[in-house]
Every structure is written in structure tokens, then in C-alpha cells.
Amino acid sequence: MADVAAAAGVSMQTVSRALRFPDTVTPENRKVIDDAIRKTHYVHNLAASHLASHKSNTVAAVIPTLSASVFAETMQHFSEVLHREGYQIFLGNTDYRLDREEEVIRSLLGRRPDGVFLIGAHHTRASVTMLKRAGIPVVEGWDMTEKPIDRLVGFSNTAAIAEMARHLVRSGRTNIVFAGVLRKGDSRAAERRDGFAAVMEELFPGKTPRISISRDLPLTMASGADLLRKALARYPEADAVMFSSDIIASGALQESVRIGLKVPERLAITGFGDFELARHLIPSLTTVSVPSAEIGREAGRLLLEGMRGIQSETTLIDMGFKLMIRDSG
User: Fold this and answer.
1) Contact of 228 with 180, CB cutoff 8 Å
2) Taking a C-beta distance cutoff of 8 angstroms, is the pair 62, 105 a contact?
3) CA 293/CA 142 separation, integer angstroms
4) Counting Cβ atoms within 10 Å, is residue 23 exposed (0-12), middle (13-18) or buried (19+)?
5) Angstrom distance (rounded) from CA 42 to CA 319
6) Is the pLDDT at 140 greater than 60, yes or no?
7) 3-state secondary structure of 88
8) What is the pLDDT of residues 62-100, one digit of tens each?
9) pTM of the predicted model, to two decimals?
């Protein structure tokens, strides 16, 4: 810091204020200090500042997977909200495993973040206990529960899949199959499966819901092709297949073209998520649109409120969903 002060021609106290409280330093001084920092390759000792202020200016975010872009838009907009306020993000990946989530939470809390954002609302008892003991704001997202840890912003996977099933029935489909990749710990995919089963029992009393699930396939387009073949082999009478994700639905749609299966005349195909790819496929994919960007922005806002000590009137925000009826079903 002394080297920076000498290069900038200001006192060390001015450099310290510029780093900790930029608004208290004139724009002219901030510029010369920034130039001096670049020239001297100075790196601010954040650990010392954190000990003094009891704030780390960091936020921990825990997501289920890095291998697919399912949560990318949410994290992008969440990051933008936090970055504007000077926060950096530590990112942890659970691979849909609750035991691994517990390990990730323990590790990230050890770095003393000022707040935590979690994708999902299903956690081990130990994870919940650690988060509550940390005494920092927590926001859960992409899910819905009546008992969030602290704050929650998401939607009902159960309601969304049920509404898509009702749409297919209204359009004349009666032999509907639910197909998906259901990895252990993926509570959202499980809720979509259970929501499908419940609405089918409601719409077609006495009939066993048609469900084709894989627990070992990866969440890829290639898996969608496999799932389509398995679903049709098991339920040759199927006139619609609802997939648990746009990724696998897109693979199934491509496979239908390869094998000459007419969509939607012979078979309707639907997805979940409304990824950019969905609207550009031929035929374009009917799917459930999830407000992923809005979830990210709202999660960032809620976390900022909590870190500033602002009591929120609403701790549970349902962002809803929208059916995107396109050419595939």
C-alpha cells in the first residue's frame, strides 16, 4: 500500500479509504490510485479487511450441476445484481447429491460469506442446521416449499407439469407418457414426475400413469433419443411424451426426425425450461417457460436486503411459469 501511495502521490490513509470506501475519495484521486494499483500490481489484502469489518463482501452460491446450462441464466443475473454492489461469488456444485451439498455448504461457510444462495429447497438436516447457525441471510431458488430456511424465490414444478398435461388432454391426447432422467437428489425432476402422476390419476381415474424413467443416463440430448425409444417400446400406444427437461426433449425431437416419426401428428413432444434451443428446433418445442432470469435477479435483491438488515415483507415469492405452445404439441 505504501508503494501505491508513493506512486499516486497521496497518503496511505487515502489509498485505504479508496479501497474500502471509494465514494469518500474524489474522482481525481480514485483515478490516480487506480493507475498506481495497476502500475505496482498491488493486490488488496481482503482477509485483513474482513477481520476488521466483519464483512467479506462475498456470497456463496450452491448449484446442482455445472455440466448443463439449466441454471446458467439464473446465475448470470444473480451475479450481475451482486456484482453491482461490490460482492464476489463463491460457487459450489453438488452434482444433485445432498451429502455433497452438505460438504459444499460446510466448506463455503468456512470462508465466511455474507449470504448464501441455494438452488433447491430440499437439504439434509445438517445442512439446514449449519445455515441457520451461520446467522446470515439465505435465499433458496427454483423450487417451492411452505417452510423455507429464510427467503425463497421460485415456482411450483408440480403445478407446471400438471398444466402441461392438461393442455395435451385438451388438445385430444389420451395416452400420455412422462419420460425423464431422474438422478438421485434431483428433487425438481421428482416433483415433475409426481405432479404428472397426480394429474393423470385426476384426469383418467383408475388408469395407471405411464412413466418411463432413467436413473443412470446423463442430462444430454443423446439421452433424449434413448428415452424416446424406451418410452415407445414400453408404451407403443403413446400419442404424447412429456419430457422432464428441454435438453432431453430436444434430443427426442431430433430422434423423431431420424426415424421418420411425425411430430405432432403421430406423437406430441413437450419439454420443460424453454431454453433458447427450444424455439429454434424444427418443429419448435412446446415447453414450460421458467422465469430463470427473474429468479436470479429477485434472489440477488432478496439477499442484498438481508445482508443490509432490511426485513422483507415477503419471504416466499412464487414467480410462476408459462406454457409455450409451439409446433411439437
Assistant:
1) no
2) yes
3) 11
4) exposed
5) 43
6) yes
7) strand
8) 999 887 667 899 999 999 999 999 999 999 999 989 999
9) 0.80
